[in-house]
Amino acid sequence: MNSPNIPAAADPVDAGAETLSLLSFNMQVGVGTRRYREYVTRGWRHVLPSQQVRDNLERIGELLVGHDIVGLQEIDAGSRRSRYENQIEQLAAQAGFDYWRVQVNRNLGRVAQHGLGLISRFAPFDVNEHKLPGRVRGRGAIIARFGRPEQALTVVVTHLALGAGSRAQQLAAICALVADDEHVVIMGDTNCSATALIADPALAASGLHVYDRPLATFPSWRPRRGIDHIITSSGLAIEHASVLDATLSDHLPVHMQVRLPGELAAAIKPYR
């Protein structure tokens, strides 16, 4: 979980460590699609390395600076297309984060190491990777817990399936995994709208809060659909939520500022 020791960037939270800046982003392995035809014309960049992807990855690293916990989807953990570099380790180093974790969900050997990434300014005391159910294998979740076992912030990074049936199974699995956690954040590309999430029976029963104001993230060049979300438990007050104007993928990043209860903030602060 721990990258090389790199000095942290400027502190983005107040002296009491009561607020957290969260970012969720489907980064499309740095390909940077900006119009529909590029799914064809730039499709080769999903297989072969290119300087344009490296340049775009640097811009993504700049985007991460100033946030506290980042969840990334569609990353490459080290294959031919990424010049055998772990993109999450590279981004963490560039943006000044000390802690990172990768989950490879589709291991295609030298062709692709496709998965999820978690980057944090805080040291978690527990991190687990979980495979999620569904008709097609290759979906998963990283679950990290920060603070102390008796007073923890649980962060889930995931990328859900396209099909509604598989998504429902995956949401039910995630809700079961965090059922005993009081303070929870789920962030990722859910491939569905906030309305669909609100209607999901497992999420509804969990008491988790789906931010229901319009946050269109896809496609990045003309966003019409809000399919990237940060879901929170009721004890985390949402101070601000927005889509960032950063066309670095076919998705736009989602940012959320949350305020932590005092005891939770005190538990997390020593682990920075």
**Rg of Cα set:** 17 Å
The assigned CATH architecture is 4-Layer Sandwich
Spatially, the strands of the biggest sheet line up as 3-4-2-1-12-11
Largest sheet, strands/sense/barrel: 6 strands, mixed
Broad shape: globular
Pfam families: Exo_endo_phos
Domain Endonuclease/exonuclease/phosphatase: 23-251
InterPro entries: Endo/exonu/phosph_ase_sf, Endo/exonuclease/phosphatase, GPI-anchor_lipid_remodeler
Protein name: Endonuclease/exonuclease/phosphatase family protein
Describe the 3D structure.
- With 272 residues, the chain is α+β, with helices and mostly antiparallel strands.
- The chain has one domain: Endonuclease/exonuclease/phosphatase (Deoxyribonuclease I, Chain A), CATH 3.60.10.
- Helix content is 22%, strand content 32%.
- The protein is built from 7 helices and 12 strands.
- The chain has helices at residues 38-41, 51-64, 87-95, 164-177, 194-199, 201-206, 262-268, and strands at 19-26, 69-76, 99-107, 113-120, 124-131, 140-148, 151-159, 183-189, 209-210, 228-232, 237-243, 254-259.
- A 6-stranded mixed β-sheet has the order 3-4-2-1-12-11, covered by helices on one side. Strands 5-6-7-8-10-9 form a 6-stranded mixed β-sheet.
- α2 crosses α3 (87-95).
- The radius of gyration is 17 Å and the shape is globular.
- The protein starts with 18 loop residues before the first strand and ends with a helix.
- Residues 1-17 have low confidence and may be disordered.
